[in-house]
Amino acid sequence: MAKNPSSFPEHVELSGQDLVLRDWTEADLPAMPGLFDHPDIAYWTPFVSPFDAAAARARLDRARQLRREGSAILLAITADGGAPMGEVMLRRAPEGTELGYAVSPAFRGQGLAARAVRVMASYAFEHLAAEQVILELEAENAASVAVAARAGFRLLDMPLITGEEKGRPYALQTWGLDRP
């Protein structure tokens, strides 16, 4: 558990929903390009593309920096604490406690994203005293909208978040899950 509201524990491992969410490690670096170097991930997420060995190193370093700053935790999604299948993120932001995820196309169709989001949301409610967690999704991303619905989130009556990233415009809807 965090020592104060602005910090995260040095190591995090969460279990539930037949998953283990764990810290990224040096041993994961070779697997990360195979997980995240995909046009679908490049299009819908802020992950860099191409996602190569240098991008993997930068992602691991960034995950560690965000943890030290107390602003976010990025965890590998695994079945048993072993090989990663994707990533789930929890970020503290002015607009609230935000979750995000990316599952490798090789592991889709198993409900990993919805299960990982539920586990991370439980962590936010139980250990960070979050009253609500949010997902920010593009309405056109049908797979992510389905994940939000399966995980129990509801579309909130909030203005769209608009911007441009990687040379394309986006409009994000905000989905929320309240503390049980």
- Give the fraction of residues assigned to helices: 25-40%
Structural class: alpha+beta
Characterize the main sheet: 9 strands, mixed
Please report the number of helical segments.
5
Task: Return Rg in Å.
Answer: 15 Å
Strand content: 25-35%
**Oligomeric status:** single chain
Distance N to C terminus: 19 Å
Unreliable stretches: 1-5
The SSE order reads: EEHHHEEEHEHEEE
Basic shape: globular
pLDDT average, as an integer?
A: 94
Number of DSSP strands?
9
Describe the structure.
There is one protein chain. The protein has 180 residues and is of the alpha+beta class. It is 29% helix and 32% strand. The chain contains 5 helices and 9 strands. It has helices at residues 32-36, 39-44, 53-69, 112-127, 142-150, and strands at 13-16, 19-23, 72-78, 86-93, 96-103, 132-138, 154-155, 161-165, 168-178. Strands 1, 2, 3, 4, 5, 6, 7, 8 and 9 form a 9-stranded mixed sheet that branches. A hairpin with a 2-residue loop joins strand 1 (13-16) and strand 2 (19-23). It starts with 12 loop residues before the first strand and ends with a strand.
Could you give a quick summary of the protein structure above?
With 180 residues, the protein is an alpha+beta fold. Helix content is 29%, strand content 32%.
Question: What would the keywords be for this entry?
Answer:
180 residues; alpha+beta; nine-stranded mixed beta sheet; disordered N terminus
